[in-house]
Design goal:
Blueprint (H helix, E strand, L loop, with lengths): L14 H11 L11 E5 L2 E4 L4 E4 L2 H4 L8 H11 L14 H12 L3 E5 L2 H20 L7 E5 L8 H5 L4 H4 L9 E4 L4 H7 L4 E6 L15 H11 L3 E5 L13 H4 L6 E4 L11 E5 L1 H4 L15 H15 L2 H18 L6 E7 L2 E6 L6 H10 L2 E2 L1 E2 L4 E4 L7 H19 L2
Parallel strand pairs: 3-13, 5-6, 5-7, 7-8, 8-9
Antiparallel strand pairs: 1-2, 2-3, 4-10, 9-10, 11-12, 12-15, 14-15
The chain binds pyridoxal-5'-phosphate.
């Protein structure tokens, strides 16, 4: 116990007050920018001192429709007045309609609702293993899953077991066996790693945490074919890449590819409640039977109502088209910085990874400078920066983001 304090949560006014308080009582598993958000609307957030920022991170794509989108807030409010939690011991009137909407959106028969992204990935891995034993005929206890170097799929013990990021992985063993990691985008390496026991390949269509790493052209279609040929399930983790971010509903669709299982999360909760899901066709999903998997909160009526409202927003295609329309402008503005303090810029839809010259500044420093100019972004590894503004951003507002970044690198070059 730290010594009792009478004013631990009183007399809070400046950003620094809240930061000092948090630092004292909230676990140090993050290292946030020194901005304390009090209020948010659309693409804008306001801190406790009244400073306004353009949110160019969107909660790692959990806020694809911006903060407090009116249709999503309305869906949540309406549902708050009806029912919020039933547990799956009973049916509720929101789950079925949500599953229909999501299934139609992503082209799958069935949905298994969970809450967080990591849970959706865990669920997909369990489904794949069970499918391996029941359908493919893999020997008991032998199921093998191929994953990609540089992956990020969440923070549970099994998932970090196959992470090659020392920060995420180290000192959390013993680790879950049954996974082989191969270089991202290397089809030959995947083919070589497949054995008679392989049940699935788990892949991010674009590696977000890796700095928006886009695989080589032809990789995803090639992986699709390979999985079909070798009777292996293709699991696409669309938790960050999906739901409109790249200009298509799913990032796999940008490459014309259909996976066997999709994991979805982040934007599926509209920035209001955690909602995640696995989507698959019946022949795969039906290996799950009563009692063999579950979640107290998964599929709750509040989450389902918000999730369905998210699906309704995406069903018109308007947000996907908007992201696709702005891709060119975004790429052009960022490519113009390459050679001028930026080493490489990768853009797909409204999503960008920017490698700043490490001699110039770290990604964290760039984010601090951007915040001073009123733009919130997030570094990934080293000097890489990630931009993922809400899909509701206008062309003019997007220009504010890229102009601010241009100023930051120019000022850094001038020392
Ligand atoms: C964020 C993320 C996850 C984990 O989601 P949580 O809701 O944080 O558990 C899994 N996969 C990908 C690709 C992600 O970006």
């Amino acid at each position: 116990m730290t010594e009792p304090s009478t004013n631990l949560s009183t007399n809070l006014s400046s950003n620094q007050d809240y930061i000092a308080l948090e630092d004292r009582v909230a676990a140090h598993n993050y290292s946030p920018l020194p901005v304390v958000v009090e209020q948010a609307e659309g693409i804008w957030v306001t801190d406790v001192e009244g400073n306004r920022y353009l949110d160019a991170l969107s909660g790692y794509s959990a806020l694809n429709f911006g903060h407090r989108h009116p249709a999503l807030v309305q869906a949540a409010k309406d549902q708050l007045d009806r029912s919020t939690l039933t547990s799956r011991a009973f049916h509720n009137d929101q789950l079925g309609p949500f599953c229909v909407a999501l299934g139609e959106l992503v082209g799958k028969d069935m949905i298994l609702p969970m809450n967080t992204g990591a849970e959706a990935v865990e669920t997909a891995l369990k489904i794949a293993r069970k499918w391996g034993y029941q359908v493919k005929g893999v020997a008991d206890g032998q199921a093998h899953i191929i994953v990609m170097d540089g992956n990020f799929h969440g923070r549970t013990t099994t998932i970090i077991s196959f992470s090659d990021d020392p920060e995420a992985h180290d000192e959390y063993g013993p680790y879950t066996p049954g996974f082989t990691s191969v270089p991202y985008g290397d089809l030959a390496a995947i083919e070589a790693a497949i054995t008679e026991h392989t049940v699935a390949v788990l892949v991010e269509p674009i590696q977000g945490e890796q700095g928006v790493k886009i695989p080589p052209e032809g990789f995803l279609p090639g992986l699709r074919q390979l999985c079909t040929d070798r009777q292996v399930l293709m699991i696409a983790d669309e938790i960050q890449a999906g739901l409109g971010r790249v200009g298509t509903t799913l990032a796999c669709q940008y490459e014309g590819v259909e996976a066997d299982l999709y994991t979805l999360g982040k934007a599926l909760g509209g920035g209001i409640v955690p909602v995640s899901a696995v989507a698959a066709d019946a022949e795969v999903m039906n290996v799950i039977t009563p009692g063999t998997h579950g979640s107290t909160f998964g599929g709750n009526p509040l989450a389902a109502a918000v999730g369905k409202a998210v699906c309704d927003l995406l069903a018109t295609g308007e947000h996907q088209r908007h992201a696709a329309d702005l891709e060119g402008q975004f790429r052009e503005a960022l490519q113009a910085l390459v050679g001028n303090g930026v080493e490489e810029a990768r853009v797909r839809g409204l999503w960008a990874g920017i490698d700043i010259d490490p001699e110039l500044m770290t990604g964290k420093d760039a984010c601090k400078q951007l915040a001073k100019k009123g733009v919130l972004a997030k570094d990934t590894h080293g000097s890489t920066l990630r931009l993922a503004p809400p899909l509701t951003i206008t062309a003019e507002e997007l220009k504010m983001v890229t102009d601010a970044l241009a100023e930051v690198v120019t000022e850094a070059q001038q020392g």
